[in-house]
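Quick one: Lycopene cyclase family protein from Streptomonospora nanhaiensis, structure tokens please.
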Amino acid sequence: MADYDVAIIGGGAAGLTLTHRLGGINDRRGRPLRVALVEPPPGPHTPPPRTWCFWEPDGGPWDALLAARWDRLSVVGADGAVHASSAAPYVYKMLRSADVDAHVRASAGGHVDQLPLLVTGVRDGEDHAEVEGTGPGGERSALTASWVFDSRPPRPFPRGRTHLLQHFRGWFVRAGHDAFDPGSAVLMDLRPAQPVNGVAFGYVLPLSAREALVEYTEFGREALTTAEYESALVRYCDLLGLSGLEVTAAEQGVIPMTDAPVRTRAGRRVFRVGTAGGATRPSTGYTFSGVGRQADAVARALARGRVPVPPVPHRRRHLVMDAVMLRALDTGRVRGAEFFSGLFAANRLGDVLAFLDGGSPLHRELAMGLSTPVAAMSLTSAEHAWHALRTGLVRRP
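--- reply ---
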């Protein structure tokens, strides 16, 4: 018999969400699942605190932990035109990783063991898998589980035909006077200077009238240095007319945006979740909602005694659309600022959010497509279809 029913590797958004969903879940025999949350001991491998943003209807499972929420959103076009509206039927939400971490650990109960282990290997097996690693004192250790869910990003990350990075740095700032509207967030501000290919934008997420997260983001092939991000943030704050700000904290990161196919099953007993399992939406870099859908599916499968294969939580047609958009940006056929300015100017914010979260109907998506550079997107779509056909023919036995 394995030590655990489930071992979850990694305590980021995917690992914590899955641990939370499995708390209190019984198997088909009515027995509580034995779960191990495996993550590195405190030290250099511990990830820094992060914020996770997403949108969903009100009344979500994390609402009690929200650091902030916004019912109204705006997008600022490259020409300075402001497109503002309600986010209905959605609410844009922010979670702090430290709050989620504390809540999940406090509510884990006696059926979840939190194991400090730097994983060095996972061995698949017919009846169970084995997770090997080193403990806090450098000692070798191992555990077995019927099912293993690995949220660590694979090294190297799969590279598709197009592989871009969403890279960013944000400042948590405090102003000496009321400078922000706590009820409204700037989702995308396209006025910063644009790279040759890709897109650059800022956004502002107010936490109070005097506090906000101000972030600079690019979609492109290469990340910037910290000094380059800092310069970009200074320029963006100047563009916003903000001066005398106190920077109280910072966050920085890189998210892959790729059309590479991702498989969630890594073996008979081993699966990938989170970014590693395709939860990240390629066109946006948003991951948190996809993580929740994967965790829900895994919990349902385990409760029913089925093989808990996590789904890739995005429709096939949306992944094709994302691949076309990424290719058009990377080749320079479309200018990123013009693309997004046109998209948000011609469509309700709620409709765009529904599409980006995978909940829009096909007819609405086709209508939105007409608000993008039609000739360039059509050419890229045809090229994508030809590439898929040609590579499919080459691989056919």
